[in-house]
Write a structure and sequence with these properties.
Helices cover 71% and strands 5% of the residues. It is mostly helical.
Length: 439
Amino acid sequence: MNVVRKNQRINMAEKFANAHNSLLGTTDKKKTYIQEGLFKFPRPKDKNKDELTDELSPGDYIFHMQNFLNTNFADYDIKAIFAHLDEDKTHSHYFLSGVNNKTGELDLHKREIEVVNNYIATLKNIDVESELIPESKKLNHSERQRFGRYFQRFFYDFTNTHLLLSKGIEATIADESERQSDVSIQRNIENNLPKNLRSHNFATLKVELAEQDLMAKKAKGNAIVKRVNEITAIKTEQLNAIKQQISIGKAEIGTNEQIIIQLKHQNSALSIELKETQSSLINLNEAVTSQKNDILSINNELANKKIELKATNALINERINDANAYIASVNVQLNDKHNELRDVDLQITQAKGILAGFNDRVTQLVGNVIKNIYVRSVAVIKNHSAAADYVQKIMNDYAQIAPAFLRDICKTAANDVEDIEVIAKMRKKDREHDSDYEC
């Protein structure tokens, strides 16, 4: 730099800085006064272009970083955020105040550890207690590495949720083998060098991209030349075949002219036949139209008949349903009458049994009475001839009219008194009367 009184100006700037720090009491060089951060996606493995260039605008880089800081460090002022578009990859820088607006303390680093520990507590499949970052002591190298690793994971998760996933993109942290590749190691070694001295800077990237573009164009040109040669060979072969066909066609032209004349005559004849066919077709169409009208009329009549048949079927079904209901009612009544008749037959059968028993009993009693009267009468009047004759007359008369079962009783009584005449008359009466006669 060609600056007038350069050293004098540098000394003046140092005096102003010291005076400012003295006034604000910011003399502790171990505290963070202003923190600078970088929002950048590392180059994809084995690729030389920014895959997110078409997806993320400079505004996405700036406003996403603002959202991240306001969400997690709301008590700390954002001094500036800007995006770099003139390097190999688009990225943003932020400058965050280290002063807590609520307490006035320079405790930004403490807040960062608190944010990281809160994030670690949400993770699964890890030993949370052993992974937490100490808040009350100076971090050693291993703890600083662990803090940086989890802070990066937390930022990637936040970025995926609030920016990338809605665009169909997901940012992931490269595995250890990728981070330890030769290219990555070389880039890490050159991080502190000026950009123009790095082996991978924006200028070398442009050269690499130009070489790749040239190689791609050469490959595309070679493919085009190869395709043109193939097409030329095919077209040449097709042209030769066409020439051969033309030669053959010229030889056939004469023959074709005779064929054309014959075809013209045939065409004239076919034209006449076509006119006749068209006339026949018109007549046929008229006949078809007439038949269609007849069919339409028949279909209408058939539809009316179907409607009438449907109404008739409905009436018949109604009558059948009424008849079935009446038959069902009659069957119920018949079943009731059959049940009543069966009860009456049972009662008659019971009455017949009772009457038969009663007749048997009455017959036995009457027979015994007659027999006893007759025997005793004969015994009493046996020695009185006039009385005996009268009793015998009564028995003889009774034998003429007595029913069969009483005649048997009388015959028994006559046997007991040895009245031969009465026995004979009763046997005669048995022969004269029908054996089925009952009292």
